[in-house]
Amino acid sequence: MRAGVAAAMATAVFLAVAVSGAAGALALPRFVEAPEYRNGEGCPAAAAGVCDPGLVHIAMTLEAHYLRGSMAAVYSLLKHASCPESIFFHFLAAEDPEPELLRRAVADSFPSLRFEIYPFRAGAVAGLISASVRAALEAPLNYARNHLADLLPRCVPRAIYLDSDVLAADDVRRLWETRLPAAAVVAAPEYCHANFSRYFTPAFWSDPGLGARVFAGRRRPPCYFNTGVMVIDLRRWRAGNYRQRIERWMEIQKEKCIYEPGSLPPFLLVFAGEVEAVDHRWNQHGLGGDNVHGSCRPLHDGPVSLMHWSGKGKPWDRLDAGRPCPLDHTWKSYDLYIPSDGSGAASPASGPALSASLFSW
């Protein structure tokens, strides 16, 4: 933890899904208690409540397979926060009993954590999701971020959305302070060298009412951006009915099949060309590798504030399989998981911090 004056306090928001199976609730993995980090000199006083104007809100998903990743992400966020005691977590949970298991799991590893739980109804999006050959792409929780502005209290001005397979290497308050000009609703790192057109079908590009016409008149040419790291102005989102705009594209997809299955393309259709650019250091993505088994990827050139294991491979899976990529060992230093046999249990208090030589400003 780095002590220092914090211009804002941090609130982390979790979108939680219950763990269900044919035989009922499944047992969640166990985790060790994380070290407790205290505010440094100059940190603001504790917030009076969620509507405190100084709060920073961070949204993440939480589910059975990704719980281990989420716990590591939280630990890294706390460790690198300038005022970790000011972080407040909100869990947006599916409407069944299992979220209470998640509540206990989080409380056991982070006893001093301040958090709340809000319900998320999977039925709100289930009828809009198109079929895919990959069942994971059909999970309703993938679309819960579209409902953040509806689920969070109306007093919340903005939120940082983070995927569960990330690791912070810097104070997330720096990302929170991203300037959003009046015309912008979302800020995120953009990747204009990526093949943007591949997310949409030939039917989309050949339709005279769609294709390039969709992106005409936007602030800049449309570029790919990864939705795993975004700063979202929730008040502008609400005012502009952006959830409804995304869902309209999902309805069109069911009629015409205009994009590749998943939650990203409708986001691109609404926001590509309108995103406020964020430094790439805040999404060193692709560390999960592509969809080829066993592939590894290095960090991109440049400084790193947040590492993102986007892609099919996850560090916890590769570590358990005995085939980790080099950067998975960095993730391991934040792993709180206790193996079922009790061997190799995490020891977070002695885990190494992320190397300053790798992540220098």
Description:
The strands form 4 sheets. An 8-stranded mixed beta sheet has the order 5-4-1-3-6-11-8-12. It has a two-stranded antiparallel ribbon with strand order 2-14. A two-stranded antiparallel sheet has the order 7-13. The radius of gyration is 20 Å and the shape is globular. The chain has a single domain, classed as Spore Coat Polysaccharide Biosynthesis Protein SpsA, Chain A. Strand 4, helix 2 and strand 5 form a beta-alpha-beta unit. The chain has 12 helices and 14 strands. 24% of the residues lie in helices and 16% in strands. The chain has 361 residues and is an alpha/beta fold. Pathway: Glycan metabolism; pectin biosynthesis. InterPro entries: Glyco_trans_8, Glycosyltrans_8_dom-fam, Nucleotide-diphossugar_trans. Its EC number is 2.4.1.-. This is Hexosyltransferase. Belongs to the glycosyltransferase 8 family.
